[in-house]
Amino acid sequence: GQNIDQPTEMTATEGAIVQINCTYQTSGFNGLFWYQQHAGEAPTFLSYNVLDGLEEKGRFSSFLSRSKGYSYLLLKELQMKDSASYLCAVIENDYKLSFGAGTTVTVRA
Amino acid sequence: TAGITQAPTSQILAAGRSMTLRCTQDMRHNAMYWYRQDLGLGLRLIHYSNTAGTTGKGEVPDGYSVSRANTDDFPLTLASAVPSQTSVYFCASSASGGGMETQYFGPGTRLLVL
Known about the structure:
The complex is a heterodimer.
Chain A: E1 2-5, E2 9-13, E3 18-26, E4 32-37, E5 44-49, E6 53-57, E7 60-65, E8 70-75, E9 84-91, E10 97-99, E11 103-108
Parallel strand pairs in A: 2-11
Antiparallel strand pairs in A: 1-3, 3-8, 4-5, 4-9, 6-7, 7-8, 9-10, 9-11
Chain B: E1 4-7, E2 10-13, E3 19-25, E4 31-38, E5 42-49, E6 56-57, E7 64-66, E8 76-78, E9 87-94, E10 104-105, E11 109-113
Parallel strand pairs in B: 2-11
Antiparallel strand pairs in B: 1-3, 3-8, 4-5, 4-9, 5-6, 7-8, 9-10, 9-11
C-alpha cells in the first residue's frame, strides 16, 4: 500500500520562495517524481530523484532523503505563472507511480 | 509533434451506457497508462500496458477495460457507466514500463455520469 502526504494548499508572494514537503510510506522505493499541473491541464514533469540529495534545475530544486521517506520541492523567485498544483509521486516495488493528492500553490502579487 | 491526444475532451453520459475513451500517442512509447483524477485523491492508476499486446490492472480497475492492439493506441472502455465514474481521465505514456522513466500525459477527458 502507499501513503503519500503533502500539504493541500500554500500561498506565497511573487518573488518569494516556497517549499512543498512530501512524506511517503510506500511498498518499496525506486524513485520520486514531482509534476506541475495548471488548472484544467495535464501534469507536466518537473524533476526526478532516486538518490539522496538536492537536484537543482533553474528556479526549481528537489530534495530527497530516502531514510526519512521525505522529499521537498523548492520554488525560488516565484512568478505568477507558478500558481498551479504540484504532485509528488513515488515509484513503488511494482514500478508503478503512486501519486499524492497534490499541493495547490497560489502566488499573490 | 502531437505527443498524446485524447478524445473526447469532455462528455456527459447517462448511467448504464457504455463509452470508450480514446488515447493515441505518436512518440513510439512502449508503455501507456490510464489514470483518473478526483478532487482530494490525486491521480489513481486504472490500467496500464507495458507493451503492445499486454495489459495490467492498476489500483482502481473495476468497471473499466482496456486493450492494446498496437503501440500507438490505448482505449479505455466503461461497459456500464455509474455516477462514481464521474472524473477527469488522463492517459499517459513512457518510453518503457520500467517506472523510472518520465510519464507524459494527455490533455484529459472530463466525464460526467448522470
